[in-house]
Amino acid sequence: MPSGRLWAWKSGCKVSVAIIVNPRAGHDVRRLIAPAHNVSDQEKVGIIRRVLVALDALSVSEIWLMPDDAGISHKALSGCHLHSKLRWLAIPIHGVPDDTRMAAKAAVKEGVRVLVTLGGDGTNRLVVREAEQTPIVPISTGTNNAFPVMMDGTLAGLAAGLVAEGYVKAQKAVRVRPKLEVRINGQSPDIALVDVMATDDTFVASRAIWEWAQWREAVVLAPQVPVIGVASMVVALQGFEETGAPGMHFLFGPGKDTVMAPISPGLIGKIPIVSANRIVPETPITFEKWRGSLALDGEREYMISPKQSVSVRLLADGVRIIDIWRCFNEAARSKVWTRLADFTL
Prior knowledge:
2 domains; 10 helices; 26% helix
């Protein structure tokens, strides 16, 4: 058996993983109105380094990195001595959210087998728009995170490498989560991973939403764990996914109930609700006509006039993510770790 690396396990084709980092994640305006955690650039650098070490330990052939205007990925490479080939995604850097989307699109074009993301709900929404069938390992570095998961970069890198290399079959480790399809005037859809919110705000400004007095209507997916943000209201009213309900449609304002929920880190609100109904998969929900903004996953994206129609539909066949628990359990069941230990890394 060859020493040094795991080439004996290779199929002969290049295996690649891409790491996509949003340098703006974890720095939004909510830190000015609540004691939210600030995820520093240095912390992101450390996470990427740990992902790189894990991928290299599993002999991933190529690791694609997203260039960013804060130089986070470049800093992560400092002092790293890797056997894997490092490559840069060929995208222009403008320091805007669309950089993330373009990086995901470029990675898919290069044929990567797994995407590792560093960001919040908004970051992952942009990645998912381009990911197609490519599974994702989402590491939480944002503010309100109902989609990505808080995990060490070492574990994230190992999970990504196990699936990319085929040590763990994707069908054993990948979990499909629903997403929301959003249409304005019936045009080509956008998506959301957590919630779609209609607000009375007539400007985009900081993009992040937290003032519930401005909320009008929302469709919110049920989270799988306790979360902070709009999705916390679903937990407050119906619990978690085991209830069988995929999410809820809210109308806000004085009326039926008032629900207390953590809207942002360190910010607990008492939200007046006119109605809260469970949503039905594949059945469109048409929002009431209004003038204001439409927020997707906690960030204002569109200005809406009363002449426009907005509809939201839950799609069960949504996002493919690598479940760390499933991945590691399957690796243990298949004796992957002991077989890997037979090689000199």
